[in-house]
């Protein structure tokens, strides 16, 4: 169970779980990140023996460990989130210290309207513009049609000659 949680934590850099599992997961994560900071073949093989996921091991050694190079420990952060609806278990958010939450820039109403119009209007204009005078695009389309027709010609069977009446 903790192997899967550790793989998810390293893959997504943030997971939601119960508080008790999160505190135990912190121990596993600290050990594997400390191992990854060595960046030796032996360390990679040990990490793969624990994680059993090549892509996560690659990310651990190439992305996560270099970010944690200057830290001596404490690679994870645990936030308490409240209680689970069904059984009332305390929930927590476990994340790597280097995790940066991507915040969207708030758009004004005018910017939103321009974006929507930009998505809708050019499609109709492009179709009209293609038909009016852009010959380059038509030239590109003709060879594609010829390529499609070529296999059809191969599939056609030769016509049989009608027998002459004597």
N- and C-termini, Cα separation: 88 Å
Spatial ordering of strands, largest sheet: 1-3-2
Assigned CATH architecture of the domain at 2-95: Alpha-Beta Complex
Helix- and strand-based class?
alpha+beta
CATH class placement of the domain at 2-95: Alpha Beta
CATH topology type of the domain at 2-95: 50s Ribosomal Protein L17, Chain: A
Number of DSSP E strands: 3
Helical amount: 55-70%
Task: Quote the beta fraction.
Answer: 5-15%
Following the backbone from N to C, one meets helices and strands in this order, namely: HEHHHEEHH
Note the main sheet. Answer: 3 strands, antiparallel
Low-confidence stretches: none
Number of helices: 6
Radius of gyration: 30 Å
CATH homologous superfamily of the domain at 2-95?
Ribosomal protein L17
Q: What is the overall pLDDT average?
A: 82
Morphology call: extended
Question: Topology, please?
Answer:
Blueprint: H1 2-12, E1 14-18, H2 19-36, H3 41-51, H4 54-67, E2 76-83, E3 90-96, H5 109-132, H6 135-155
Antiparallel strand pairs: 1-3, 2-3
Helix pairs in contact: 1-2, 3-4
Q: What is this entry, summarized?
A:
The protein is α+β, with helices and mostly antiparallel strands and 166 residues long. 60% of the residues lie in helices and 12% in strands. It has a domain at 2-95: Ribosomal protein L17 (50s Ribosomal Protein L17, Chain: A, Alpha-Beta Complex).
